[in-house]
Amino acid sequence: MAQLGKFESQLELKSPAEKVFDIFRRKSYLFPKIVPQMVKDVKLVSGDWESVGSVRLWNYVAGDCESGKETVEAFADDPKSITFTYLDGAAMDLYKSLKVGFQFSSEGEHCMTKKVLAYEKRNANVPDADKYLEFTCGMLPSVDAYLLKA
User: Fold this and answer.
1) Model-level pTM?
2) Within 10 Å of residue 76's Cβ, how many Cβ atoms?
């Protein structure tokens, strides 16, 4: 039987939605500068920084030091949304699939972010993937602070 899970979270940021979306959509290479305590490196494996199908290799800290490849599965400029699918790495030892989606909407001059993490466990003994949701949620306040300084 499939061991499916899904987490959703929302967070309001002070930065405009367009600028927050742009970091996730086109400028992932900035994450080691924005959140050096969480993201050690992001490298482009194939494609470019802003196209569907592009593959990126991340070295990050989500509890333990990990690395993994992800691809940009989909994005839309209206509404501002992007979905990443993990391809390999430490997370894929535990999960058959792992996807993270973000939607960024304007709330006046601010941004409301909605994050959805969907996964399928390899077996019933595998923990829920909440540490990956916490990781992505933990990046957002730093992105906000970075943009507010710019």
Assistant:
1) 0.90
2) 12
